[in-house]
Each structure stands twice: as C-alpha cells, then as structure tokens.
Specification:
Layout (H helix, E strand, L loop, with lengths): L1 H11 L1 E4 L8 E6 L11 E5 L6 H7 L2 H8 L2 E6 L32 H16 L7 E6 L1 H12 L6 E5 L4 H4 L5 H7 L8 E6 L7 H20 L12 E5 L34 E7 L5 E8 L6 E2 L7 E2 L5 H10 L14
Parallel strand pairs: 3-4, 3-5, 5-6, 6-7, 7-10, 11-12
Antiparallel strand pairs: 1-2, 2-4, 8-9, 9-10
Helix pairs in contact: 5-7, 7-8
Amino acid sequence: MRRFLVVLALVVGISPVWSSGAAPSRQYLLHVPPGPAVAGRPLVVVLHGCEESAKDIKAQSGWDELADREGFVVVYPDQLVSVGSSAPLADGNGAGCWNWFLPEDQQRDMGEPGMIADITRTVLSQQQADPSRVYVAGLSAGADMAVILAATYPDLYAAVGSEAGCPYATCTDAAGLLAYRAMGPRARVVPMLVEQGTADTLNPFPQSQALVSSWLGTDDWADDGARNGSVPATPAAVEHHGFDQTPQPGTGDPCVRSLNWPCPGGIVGFQDSYPYTVEHYADGAGCGILDFWIIHGMEHAQPHASSGPFSDPLGPDVTAALWSFFRAHPLGACSSGSPSS
C-alpha cells in the first residue's frame, strides 16, 4: 500500500511524506519556482481549510504565481479524509479539517503540529531553503492550526498568517498566556497577520478580533516574560481603503467595533474589491508585529481567489499582503529594531 501511494504521488505531482510518530501519515504538494535550483530561498507553508484539500488551496490562492515572481518555495500539507463509521477522528474528521480543536493536536512534537513541522523541516532541508525565512499561513481550520504552530514552534516559523481563525487552545486563550506557555523556553514575539471578513457566518468577526487581542497578549508575555503593557494593545496606525470608515465624534466605529455587520460599506459601492481596514500594531520600540486586515462585508472566504471552496473573486489580495508581511519579518526582525510594517 505504501509503495502504491508513492507511485500515485509521483504521478499526480504530490510529494509524499510519512511521519514517524503517532500522528497519521500525510502527503503534501510542493511548488518550486522554475529555473535552476537556488539555495537560501524563503519557504511558505500553506494550510487548507475544511471541505477542501491541498490541491484546492494551491489552485485558488495564488501562492504559486506569487512564488514564481518572488522566488520562494511553497508547500501545501494535505489532511486525510476518511469515510465510514469506523474512520478515526484523527483522519480529517470526515470533512478534511485539521484537528485544531483536539488537545493532542495543540502541542509540540505531537499529532498534527508535529507532522506539519516534520514536513516543513523535510522541505527546508531538501530545498536548502533559508531557515530564518520560514512562514506558515492558513485559512479557517488551517488558520487555527497556523496559530497552534506559532505557539508550539516559534523557533521554526518566523511569522504566521491567519485567515478567519481564532485564539490558541480551541479559541479559549483570551489573554494569550496559554500560547506563551506552549512556547516554553523558545518564547519570542512571533509576528502575525490576521485577516477576517466582517460578514463571516462560520468564523464570526469577534473570533479574529479575539485572536488579535490574545496574540498581542502572548507577545507582551514573550518579549520580557511579563504581562506589563510592553506591547501596546492599541494600533500604532490604521488605514482605510475603499471608503471613509473614520468614526464620527461620539459614535465610535459604526460598522465593526459595534459588531453591527455586515458593514453597509461592504455590500454597496465596491467594484473589484471589498472596502477594507488595516490595523498595524507595533511593539514598544515601534517595530510592526501584527497586522489586522478587516474586510468589510465579506463572508467566510479567501478573497481575490479563483473559483473553488470558500473562495471569493473580489479583493483585496490577501495572499500578496501575507507575502509582503512575511518578507518584512524574517526571524529576529523586531529584536533588531526594524521599523513598523
């Protein structure tokens, strides 16, 4: 059976990998820019959501095209999908979801985080990629697993992207302390880009809002070992694109902070992109450590994506935004006093 899977993987272009631990084996898709092999390229790990596969997110996300232009390697781990009453929960829970909600899949060197880290290290070695420029991004359940990887492997992933995700430990880590504890002796400030549609009915806007608050708390703990306000909880800068979202005096933010969504600006007046807001958060030295992309009026989808599960052809191009954020955050970027992103 294993030999058959290897042959099948070679035929369909899947790079196979089998983990040696208790986690079920997984395959992955690999994209390498055309041309001669080049050592020292960045590596981006992309995690699909529920009801989709590595093939789906590879086809619809635009990561391959961006990698060809920018010169980095992309790997797409694939969750197993088992069917039938005897299928174990660990095998994709019947819907191809990463098991981000199971305690055994929220820890270092165990379950799915360990498996994805193994895939990352395998590709990192085989492609002679730059270990200081390894990143992970995910959509929906993939976003939740990306957050877990940020907490459990801060020494492996330089920065992380979450599209429609929630805080660590099955969305319960409101203060960010659990993620900090999961980092253990490897604790550091891990830069993160969070993206969320305000009209999302599967992962409602407050979930990603909670992730922003939680991860800023984790960063506050990680920078000096204490929750002491060394990482500000308010944005250093805010950008509005597509319409004026400036709060009126005495009213606050009429669309988002009141949770009055979908935002009217997100369902009228746009052409090729939803209006969106970007909140830039920085550490005490002014180094950008977290960007929050709020897409007004968008449902549970990957924006600027071709047809496929949970895709929306309207912009903005969050894949490009993720790469721009990643490129500015190699390992140790903020510890060296980099400017705010």
